[in-house]
């Protein structure tokens, strides 16, 4: 029984905070949770002409879904399965963190994504309001 408590405490202590980020060229610094939910569930494709980027990292994605969209990752998988089956929406394309860094170009001056790192070169933190 002791072993399980140690594992639980260790798991809770390594849980990191996910941050919403945007490239430096984005004109906004604040976004509300409803808009974030609409964007990442693909109910809206752009926010002020800003495309969204989803990272190909299950841990980051699950943390993001639970923090900002307030859904269980299993429910999110069911949601995307239903959307694909009905032909309503396609899930966003997932890219690696390395590809994310290479996406900053004059043509892509404003992108929105998330990360566990507090600072990434060329990106700024976006404050999310309730």
What does this structure look like?
- This protein is of the alpha/beta class.
- It has a single domain, classed as Periplasmic binding protein-like II (D-Maltodextrin-Binding Protein, domain 2).
- Helices cover 41% and strands 17% of the residues.
- It is built from five helices and seven strands.
- It has a three-stranded antiparallel beta sheet, with no helix packed on it.
- About 8% of the residues have low confidence.
CATH superfamily: Periplasmic binding protein-like II
The tally of beta strands, per DSSP, is 7
The radius of gyration computed from the alpha-carbon positions, rounded to a whole number of angstroms, is 16 Å
How much helicity do the residues have? 40-55%
The mean pLDDT is 79
Class by helix and strand content?
alpha/beta
SSE ordering? HEEHEHHEHEEE
Question: What's this model, at a glance?
Answer:
The chain is of the alpha/beta class and 130 residues long. It is built from 5 helices and 7 strands. The protein has a 3-stranded antiparallel β-sheet with strand order 5-1-6, with no helix packed on it.
Descriptive keywords:
130 residues; alpha/beta; D-Maltodextrin-Binding Protein, domain 2; three-stranded antiparallel sheet; two-stranded parallel sheet
Topology, please?
Blueprint: H1 2-14, E1 19-23, E2 30-32, H2 33-40, E3 54-55, H3 58-69, H4 73-86, E4 94-95, H5 97-102, E5 112-115, E6 123-125, E7 127-129
Parallel strand pairs: 2-7, 3-4
Antiparallel strand pairs: 1-5, 1-6
